[in-house]
Design a protein that fits this description.
Elements (H helix, E strand, L loop, with lengths): L1 H8 L7 H11 L13 H9 L5 H42 L5 H42 L4 H19 L12
Amino acid sequence: MRALGWAVVMPAHEGQRIGAVLAELRRTRILPQERARIDKADYVRALLRVDYRSSVARYARLQEDIEADTARVEPFFQAASRVAEDDRVRLRALAAVPEVEPDEVANAEGRVEENRLLEAWVQIAFEERVVAYRYALDRLVLETPDRASVAVEAALARLESVLRSLRPAGPPRGVFKG
């Protein structure tokens, strides 16, 4: 679950350095989730900084990133479901196992909370990416309209549909320092 989640919480474009720093600060809980939101314009700024030969290449990159995220959704939430089941077993075991040491309780509860935090963080990251991709598509259409935008729009609609069908209902859960 961690490897799948990390690919989502890191910025989609390698040019988004500040996003990578914020992701690390969020991971270590130095910055609380609500104070470390990624600016939706960061992705398109990074995309526009790259000197592509044509506007079609920017649309292609945007579509590739959207499709890569779409491919990550189902595996992540399947893994998260398995981890959540393991965590339920872990918590039941805490109640059933005799002579559990206080540090064992703290470690088990900490692991469960860390898993919940990661799932919440990834859920928020997917939502942030959809917003950033939509913003980027709108900016690209304004700057360099192209028929390629139709395929990007369809890819974005697929991502949104997959997210709606697979993500857990309700707001993200997790405890953030702050």
